[in-house]
């Protein structure tokens, strides 16, 4: 039941109609029921798994809170971490590691064939596992009080707008909203939700799905079929496909939650306006990057302990972040690339600190523009590994970038369509960036908002991609 | 009035205006729409011609049929077989198959009762058009082909997902929604350089995959419904396989059902290889070869006052 399907909107109408008529406790039960129904629509067989993870971490949270000494607290947090990550590993990584191990054994002539273990990946397992872990870790750190209501906790784990593709909300942020009565749907919430839902649908249905055609074609092309410029077009197309896809999903999730009185964390903040990798990660998949920072990078030592350890921690965090996306070497390379880039950027900052003194508009503007362009292209370089089916394919595409740069019909049409679909959106993002407020449009006079919504509505109606595409992050 | 209410009202008003414009000017959107709207005149034309004692032939199919059946050759051939002033009419919407043909025939010639019927129906198919397949465009089916009587059945059994049903229902009430996919090609083919070749390049693999998937293990329930809805004796129906660049045999299920209902099938032309120049655009028959194919079709029609 995708956000870009009629099913979802019919489902949401029913959920909201009933939700508004209920009191707080019944609202939670109703939302939990709706969330399990939503999840069951993807594959009802995995409802047992989500219930198991919920019960496991609910119980662990209670035991951590009840533990009288540090040793028992450590045991229960360890139990929660090991058991949750074990479930994640079995479903997500066992097949990959078994295959890689068997290839190693094959190379040593210890086995004749590589093993293939194809385990079905439950929808959103990485997301709800991280949700659950954020809770037990927060209880362990005493950052959040233990949740004694199973319904509330189950709803925190499975709240349907964010269940299968995030944002990954922290227990400190979401659990209090589950536990207490939420604000009613007033004009401000409706306005904000409408803006997020409209822009989210536009990002997904108009931008991401239209870019998917070019990206899929280029990343699936045979060697030698494309010239360098066409490969570049495909990489750009994927950069905007994944952005539109994931930022669109997040915006819809946040918008829909607004209508139910929840405030989820912002997940994307105009990432392609970032002028360096650090800024990029402060704008891209914010809920994951901050999760990794708080639950992995800082416990590893963060930037305490010298430059060498900081660089190691950055690299390790990003490699694991890459692996979080999927069990493949391409994701590991993608993570390592970002880790190395962050480390290099940190070193550069240490040696070439930012210019102080009187600012020159043209100089600073030029440097900023150069930074944005360089960051975007390096991010695109990372996307090649992220999207390619194999390392070989990624290297083949990068090699093709240097081949025969000539203008073709495919190139002309591709860049024209990119301009058509992306141009107005990037102008809006530029304006929002200047205002430094993601919701700046809500302060514009209503005729301006109405005109933009009309544009979005007409684009959704007339220029949705011919074939709807599944949300990319669903598979993570 | 609250500002968000104003915005929602504004959007609704603009949509209502756009809906009105779509209803008034939808025929200018494409030749396909003009043709489908023109189908509404078929029953009237048949009634009028039959009142004058003319012999009415309905060609049912898609653009393959339209290109392959030469009207002049067919009318001449029928005259030579003794049919009085034959009139050939085409019910051949673009990119259609058995779903659209069944729905459209039932819309213009409602089953049951003794309503208007053509004197002869020639049903033309490619390799897999008579096999059951998912509805490709619920919007088109709702807006142009389905009768009000058939809508509940289409909703409950032809369409399988909520999304398809929602699109069908929306297209039933809104011409703007029904025709929404026509704006994109209308604009891009004119404005975007290299769009046509790029679209073909991007869509080619998908097309090849879906073609193969349709034939495997398919059923012919919808074809059975069409045959049962014709309201014509079997000798007044001819199923003909249209030649394609690659020779093919009609699926066994199609031939089996046709013979079970005693309907004649002309399949020979599709079995033989045709020269490349027979298909100027690589798919549809050109005029010269259409004449030759039509002669073959005529051979499958008995002389007047013999079997008919």
Characterization of the model:
The complex is a heterodimer of chains A (476) and B (308). Chain A is mostly helical. Chain A has two domains: 12-182, no CATH class; 188-353 and 364-471, no CATH class. Chain A is 71% helix and 0% strand. Chain A has 18 helices and no strands. Chain A has helices at residues 6-19, 24-43, 47-66, 70-107, 125-141, 150-158, 160-163, 171-179, 187-219, 228-259, 277-283, 286-297, 306-325, 329-351, 361-387, 391-400, 409-435, 446-462. The two termini of chain A are 16 Å apart. The mean pLDDT of chain A is 91. Chain B is α/β, with parallel strands linked by helices. Chain B has a single domain, classed as Rossmann fold. Helices cover 54% and strands 8% of the residues of chain B. Chain B has 16 helices and five strands. Chain B has helices at residues 3-25, 31-38, 42-51, 63-68, 71-80, 98-108, 138-145, 151-158, 162-173, 175-178, 183-191, 195-215, 221-229, 252-260, 268-271, 287-299, and strands at 56-60, 87-91, 120-125, 237-241, 264-266. Chain B has a five-stranded parallel β-sheet with strand order 2-1-3-4-5, sandwiched between helices. In chain B, strand 4 (237-241), helix 14 and strand 5 form a beta-alpha-beta unit. The longest helix of chain B is centred in the N-terminal third of the chain and has 23 residues, at 3-25. Chain B starts with a helix and ends in a 9-residue tail after the last helix. Mean pLDDT of chain B is 89; it is low at 205-214. At the A-B interface, helix 1, helix 9, helix 17 and helix 18 of A face helix 1, helix 9, helix 11 and helix 12 of B.
